[in-house]
Design brief:
Radius of gyration of chain A: 20 Å
Number of helices of chain A: 14
Number of domains of chain A: 2
Largest interface: A-B, 38 and 38 residues
Largest sheet of chain A: 9 strands, parallel
Strand content of chain A: 15-25%
Oligomer: homodimer
CATH class of the largest domain in chain A: Alpha Beta
CATH superfamily of the largest domain in chain A: Queuine tRNA-ribosyltransferase-like
Strand order of the largest sheet of chain A: 4-15-14-13-12-11-7-6-5
Chain lengths: ~375, ~375
């Protein structure tokens, strides 16, 4: 298989005792240091944050949602206005998902045929037919640095037959996405499906590698299965994925899931948890989560985390609690900033641990603190 | 009458054709260049903005609400945590109102006797009795740079008798506030009442001046009366107020009201309009207001105001509209930042016009653009 070298991924160091990797991915809008966490900017904004606040958390790359943006304000409009980077005011890399997961989770009455997925818009109920070619066209209009292929996501548990059917279709759709792509300045990542069946997962991965992509994602996980099952799947898939290409675990997850994923060889993650939990008054810290509405914070003059450089941590826990009690927008904003900063700090600690060849100790430590 | 010189107010220039004044008020936490606009931080936060975003709009001084903060999180707690400045993370001047207006507008079943006001908390219905002495004690606990005396606000129109009764009581309460004050590092401003009756207004002002305060506010306006009536009252009151002390028009108002107030000799203003309208998708500009949900902005690549340095104006009108259509928090945040920046820019234009002795032209110009 011949690969383009348009999006170089340099492995700076591989941990000797785990599969953790320290890498550097070069994309049209800049460099992504891996392991990396991508904040989610569903509707062209990371909820509650200005774009300079997003940058201040330390993010190198954002995720944008093809499904949401294609419905509103539409990819045509974003293209007319110079693409998603310019629309959001973000000049660093962006990855766009393909819409597969949102069709599965949000689209009403979704029906999948070999041609594509038919679903009703969650906004106005209009019927939309999305083919793999459409997903790529939309992502090319958005102008993201990385486009994801359209995959067929199904609910788990499911019969082996249904899992294989969706997994095989995802491979054929991945090929159609690759064939449909026109822009050379956009990396294409494939998505490994196959449910919780390790053999089907490996088979799917091998078929996708045969087609050849710029990176490989693991999809269809973190949909309610126990974390150990997810880790077991990663144990099987990562070893068959190309060493010299980035690996992305979609929609994951809790801080400990990121660390466990890194230990198994994953390079990239995304999740709404830091912003969603932040809006719900839950703060991530190196010692676990804090519920900021709790009375114990009412008179606490200390910041959420004393060594955190974020805006929220310039204030007392008492102030943050007050904002939530008073239903002020600033509460969700400050906690979202804090949580995203925590996720980025966790990634920077992981990168350093790998560089210093002590990721196994780091993993043990994090299992005690976070799990 | 002997006045302390603890809070010097320097008149830098008085316009020769109007009553507009360019001043500088020195307060414990810094200098306020006047004419000045104070963003409102009702519950210890300017709604939707981080404190550095508030500073970025150009604000020199904020307003905090005694009524809201005393109910939640309580002034005792804020005092324990080092005062309102530290609680909010704002190290520039703060003015706190006395609670009089909120008791009038929010307090259920409010009853005023000579001793004080009795009302039900809008949070939990508990019955609270607030005397002038309590208002000052609370404001001293908050530690603001300027405390307002407790006044008796009544609904207009009202009988001459009712207006005089409330106005006279406000004077007696002002004296009690002055007598109750302990902190020497907190300026005390009196509030001129008297409804829309010019004679009562002037009489009230003269009585307050006789007692002697660090500044004088005009209260009980902007409660539904036509703007020309408000301007007429200012025309009467300002000439009797001490030239060498600051004058504050409470709760006002639209951009044109600020300019008209400055022309009549007002130095300070506060209003929730820039943030409230911002949350409702309305943008202030030098040419009037824009409704950002309107379809005409859907494809508009231009910023709200090309010469505005705010964060919102780094984005297109199309992006701002999209945020409101998609019900994203960032829409209200960005427009609040823009509107507060516009109000501060308007004040800076006014200050410059006064310095250059061309405020009358500026007023004519603004009447055409804003009214």
């Amino acid at each position: 298989m011949v690969r383009s070298n348009s999006f170089p991924f340099d492995l700076i160091h591989s941990d000797t005792k785990t599969r953790a990797r320290r890498g550097r991915l070069q994309l049209p809008h800049g460099v992504v240091e891996t392991p990396a966490f991508m904040p989610v900017g569903t509707q062209g904004t990371v909820k509650g944050l200005t774009i300079d606040q997003v940058a201040s958390t330390g993010a190198h790359i954002l995720l944008g949602n093809t499904y949401h943006l294609s419905l509103r304000p539409t990819s045509e409009l974003i293209s007319e206005l110079g693409g998603l980077h310019r629309f959001m005011g973000w000049d660093k890399p962006i990855l766009t998902d393909s819409g597969g997961f949102q069709i599965f989770s949000l689209g009403d009455m979704n029906k999948v045929t070999e041609d594509g997925a038919t679903f009703k818009s969650h906004l106005d109920g209009s019927v939309i037919h999305l083919r793999p070619e459409d997903s790529i066209r939309i992502q090319e209009q958005l102008g993201s640095d990385i486009a994801m292929v359209l995959d067929h996501v199904i609910a788990l548990p499911a019969s082996d037959e249904a899992v294989r059917d969706a997994s095989d279709r995802s491979v054929r759709w991945a090929q159609r996405c690759k064939d449909a792509a026109v822009r050379a300045d956009q990396a294409k990542f494939a998505i490994v499906q196959g449910g919780l069946n390790p053999e089907m997962r490996v088979q799917c991965a091998e078929q996708l590698i045969e087609i050849g992509f710029d990176g490989y994602a693991v999809g269809g996980l973190s949909v309610g299965e126990p974390p150990p099952e997810m880790y077991a799947i990663l144990d099987k898939i990562c070893p068959v994925l190309p060493t010299d290409q980035p690996r992305y675990l979609m929609g994951v997850g809790r801080p400990i899931d990121l660390v466990e994923g890194i230990a198994r060889g994953v390079d990239m993650f995304d999740c709404v948890m830091p912003t969603r939990n932040g809006r719900n008054a839950s703060a991530f810290t190196a010692e676990g989560q804090l519920k900021m509405r709790n009375l114990c914070h009412a008179k606490d003059d200390a910041p959420i985390e004393a060594d955190c450089p974020c805006l929220a941590c310039k204030h007392s826990r008492a102030y943050i609690r007050h904002l939530f009690q008073a239903d002020e927008m600033l509460g969700p904003t400050l906690l979202s900033i804090h949580n995203l900063t925590f996720y980025q700090r966790l990634m920077s600690w992981a990168r350093k641990a790998i560089e210093e060849d002590r990721f196994e100790e780091f993993l043990t430590e994090q299992r005690q603190k976070l799990a």
